[in-house]
Amino acid sequence: MRFEIDVRMRYRFSEPNTVALVLEAARTPGQIVQQEYLQMGDAMVTRIGGDCGIGTRIWAQIPGTEMQLTYQATIETTRPALQLDLMYSAPLHELPSEAAPFIRPSRYCQSDKFVSFVNKRFGHRHGGAKVAAIRDWIEDNLSYVPGSSDSDTNVLDTFAGREGVCRDYVHLFCAMVRAAQIPARAVAAYGPDVWPQDFHAVAEVWLDGSWHLVDATGMCAAIDLAVIAVGRDAYDIAFMESQAPATLLTQEVRVNRV
């Protein structure tokens, strides 16, 4: 699968500012960044490695009070189709260091609150079959409603309200999968079938000794996703963090197959 990404952002700040940006497609197995371009005017840009060694984080020093950003990339994805039902989940004592942290609760994924529910609802399943059943339950029981949540919405709010956007789906999915003692982490991504078009959030689960992408919204298959970054939850993969108050002027994300 090959697709093009086009991101345009304009923000105004109350003063000269430093922002953290997470928006460049990662150079990671399963995808090839064929070309990319980042333009931020007179901002001073510094890159550091992303969490778990995936992708990059940008420190952008904005000398004025407005940021204008253009990011464009062409990505080719090469991941095989998933067969979750056939995949094996390792017992806790076999988890490697890269997976073990992602069975714990985090700021937005209070997995300890879902142990009883997951055991009762999905306890008869195992491994990838359990992960697939959790994904299907979330897709069937939640409604995708733009504007229905904000940065303060936690996974318990989403479970009770049965609605949200991609970040809420990811939080509930990761919380339930971690409650089943299977590592799960949040992933920032681009996808051509995301609607409305925007930065997207999906998940990765640790099965058969490696990470595998899962979109609990049902919008995108693994082959249709370009990974940007990974983390414990949305707090770790936010596309922008600003030190000064920020006012959105315009923002547009376009992802098209080519």
Could you describe the 3D structure shown?
The protein starts with a strand and ends with a strand. The chain is built from five helices and 14 strands. Helix 2 packs antiparallel against helix 4 (166-179) and helix 3 packs across helix 4 (166-179). It is 19% helix and 37% strand. It is of the alpha+beta class and 258 residues long. It is globular. The model has no long low-confidence stretch (mean pLDDT 96). The protein folds into two domains: 2-78 and 239-257, Immunoglobulin-like; 84-236, C8orf32 fold, CATH 3.10.620. It has a four-stranded antiparallel sheet with strand order 3-6-1-14, with no helix packed on it. Strands 4-5-2-13 form a four-stranded antiparallel sheet, with no helix packed on it. A hairpin with a 6-residue loop joins strand 4 (44-49) and strand 5 (56-62).
Specify Rg, calculated over alpha carbons.
Answer: 18 Å
In helices, the fraction of residues equals 10-25%
Could you tell me the strand content as a percent range?
A: 35-45%
Low-confidence stretches: none
Number of domains: 2
CATH class (first level) name of the largest domain? Alpha Beta
Q: Measure the end-to-end span.
A: 8 Å
